[in-house]
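User: Predict Endonuclease/exonuclease/phosphatase family protein's structure from this.
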Amino acid sequence: MILILLGIFWIVSEKSGIEKWMGLGLIFLSVVYLFIQVWPYTIFGKKMIQRVPFSKENGFHLIVGNVYQFNTQYSKTVQLIKKRNPDVVFLVETNQDWVDNLKEIEENYPHSIFLPKENTYGLVFYSKFPMVRKEINYLLDPEIPSIEVDLELPSGKTITLYGIHPTPPVPGENEKSTERDAEILIVGKKAQKNPNPSLVMGDLNDVAWSYTTHLFLKISEMADPRRGRGFYSTFHAKVPFFRWPLDHVFLSRHFGLSGLKVLRSIGSDHFPIEIKATLTSEKTTDTFQANGDEKIEARAKIINGHKE
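Assistant:
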């Protein structure tokens, strides 16, 4: 987008001399800055998580998707889940109509959580693995739920999944990203303190290379499977040339990556994303760590989020 802006500015600008070159220079510096930000998410960046063979005993196959509440093409989601046959499914923007129209898959997923809402913040969770523990949290807003679930893998090992869908900044309603940033960081701190192998999943309403996401990686000490592999953009599904990675799965250091894929359209404005990961005793994952100033900044963002 910014490269297009650079071309348009060059063509239509009536200014000449130093003013025109200063404008072009500022746009060019923006291009360089953004290039540096997204570089780790290209195939030329360093991978945070190495690939390992998938294990049915110590691995999980997960689909995460924002279905778009007003999307009525329910059968597309049902067919996709049946075809891909994941172990775990986490969907957001699910109201009661969505819960009713997903009943067809329930027989394959004996463990579930239903939190239908009409405010675009409903959640549903399906698992083939037993739930050892589950928590439904409202971290900042009584109308925006998140989940925390311990699952028992076939090997008997326990992993923790955090499912979130924080509110985005919206002009005229929620001008700042304060609450979104705070919720992401709250979950990051919970994951970092959790002794179980953990993952954070959901529509974070934030791109992979944002400052907040990078701070989250440091606070949580988790890894982003996208780094070194590509953008794996999930939004906007209906705009082919302008897409961003808004739907995420972050993994703790205990996992190796066995597969990552953006799936076909389900009629939503988001594409679902699929991941396979496996517990491993080998060191397959690099993580960041927050320094003192970053921990203070994260704490301040969380406090500000509670004040909103």
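The CA atoms of residues 73 and 97 lie 11 Å apart.
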